[in-house]
Request: fold
Amino acid sequence: MWYEVELSYCKTLYMEEERNGVGWDQETHDLLCDHHLSLYI
Reply:
């Protein structure tokens, strides 16, 4: 359950960054998300 919450948070964060023009590319974003999620595993 928590995993899905974190994943949706990451996706929301990515969309926020896009809207704010931060513009991390998807690959970098996924790496950061994976790292973030790995802290909980």
